[in-house]
Specification:
Blueprint lengths: L1 H38 L4 E4 L3 E4 L4 E6 L2 E6 L18 E7 L2 H4 L9 H11 L6 E6 L7 H12 L6 E6 L3 H8 L4 E2 L5 E3 L13 H9 L1 H20 L1 H10 L28 H21 L4 E5 L12 H6 L12 H11 L3 E4 L1 H8 L23 H20 L2
Helix pairs in contact: 1-7, 3-13, 4-9, 5-9, 7-8, 9-11
Length: about 400
């Protein structure tokens, strides 16, 4: 009996020692990234209707290798200041809907192109009206979730205009979210719960404690997810053979599985998949257009370029992670489909690509120069300068539209 207790104590001690070692390793090797994931739980949450959303009143910081910025979520669950429910007299209210670029991922809220646009409209347009440009961007949103947001919250904010920032990554996101969407008898989306339980946003107090305080816990979950990701992509047999022979796991070159390719729009070998993927985007954008048309609210679609469309010197480090070469890539074909759709449905379009191209034209190599880069070199989102370019371009387009009213 005493031996059994002794062995049990030794076994427990070994487990605790292994966990302590794992915690030290995770904090030293991956502390910054895992810490960022832990911090997000103070202002992001899973959402059974909208898939994911901000926590109303949530506060925290986004700390990555290229930035350290604050997040202050308003009572409406948006990364913006508080706005009155009732518009004041002479107020023209614009809702700007989009994903992480619109959210302002990597910059302070006031440096995001949405808020810069608001400042320009109020300071440069010389309009007697007061403009409110409300940032409704949330990372990883796409037309499906943006339609649900518009129906659930957006229309209740009494907008005078709605601007949608369309991102080529929406092809992947709508495909992925389509796995859990619920629809009515006519096929119209009603909700989109998360595909799996999101541990970082769990209500379980033990998991909340582990996510907040244990980097090893997050590391194990991340490692398991990466392993399953590779198995789904290339199969267990190839995974084992690659490890034995020392070959890298090529998850992007030949595989046709859409659920592993966020950048499908930029891969020539998958060009024939784009029209089919676009149909989902098209359906959801059409639903937004229909709702806005009923209420006589102008609808505008904005597009912006990814770094690899602009310069070989932009997003230099990050693109290698996704198998892209250091060259300038052609604009994705889905933009042509979007342009045709917009023209057919009377939806106004603003394309910021010319402004970004002009901002880099004739410029000497600026690799590693933070003050000149429009995109973060590893992450790929806009730097403050990129947001400046986007805001100026969108402002010119919106100003032209407003003067025609």
């Amino acid at each position: 009996m005493k031996k059994r207790i002794l062995y049990s104590m030794i076994f427990v001690d070994m487990i605790l020692l292994a966990m302590a070692g794992g915690e030290i390793y995770a904090r030293v090797k991956h502390g910054a990234l895992l810490g960022a994931k832990s911090r997000e739980m103070s202002y992001r949450r899973a959402d059974m209707k909208l898939n994911h959303s901000f926590i109303p009143g949530g506060k925290g910081r986004s700390v990555m290798r290229e930035w350290n910025v604050s997040y202050d979520i308003n009572s409406g669950g948006l990364r913006d200041r508080e706005y009155p429910v009732e518009k004041g007299e002479g107020v023209y209210r614009i809702l700007f809907i989009g994903d992480s670029f619109t959210e302002g991922y990597g910059v302070e809220a006031e440096k995001c192109f949405v808020k810069l646009l608001e400042s320009k409209l109020n300071g440069e347009s010389r309009s007697p009206r007061t403009f409110e440009v409300i940032n409704c961007g949330i990372a990883s949103n796409s037309p499906l979730l943006e339609y649900l947001f518009l129906k659930d919250k957006g229309l209740g904010m009494d907008p005078d205009m709605v601007i949608l920032a369309y991102d080529p990554g929406d092809l992947y996101d709508d495909h992925d979210y389509g796995k859990t969407v619920t629809v009515d008898g006519a096929g119209v989306p009603l909700s989109c719960p998360p595909e799996k339980r999101v541990r970082a946003f769990s209500d379980n107090p033990i998991e909340k404690f582990l996510v907040r305080h244990s980097r090893y816990y997050l590391y194990l979950e991340e490692d398991i997810n990466k392993f399953l990701f590779k198995i789904r992509g290339i199969g267990f047999k190839k995974y084992v053979l690659d490890n034995i022979t020392g070959k890298s796991h090529d998850l992007y070159k030949d595989d046709r599985r859409l659920d592993i390719d966020k950048f499908v729009a930029f891969r020539p070998e998958k060009a024939d998949l784009i029209p089919g993927l676009w149909q989902k985007n098209r359906e959801h954008i059409a639903l937004m257009a229909r709702e806005l048309r009923k209420k006589g609210i102008p609808f505008v679609i904005v597009t912006y370029p990814y770094a690899l469309e602009i310069s070989a010197d932009e997003w230099k480090e990050g693109r290698a992670e996704y198998g892209f070469k250091r060259t300038v890539y052609p604009r994705p074909s889905v933009l042509g489909l979007l342009n045709d759709f917009s023209a057919e449905n009377g939806i106004m379009r603003i394309d910021t690509y010319p402004s970004f191209a002009e901002a880099t034209e004739g410029r000497p190599s600026f690799a590693g120069s933070e003050d000149k880069s429009l995109y973060y070199d590893f992450d790929g989102h806009f730097t403050e300068k990129g947001h400046d370019v986007a805001a100026a371009s969108i402002y010119e387009g919106i100003r032209a539209m407003l003067t025609k009213e």
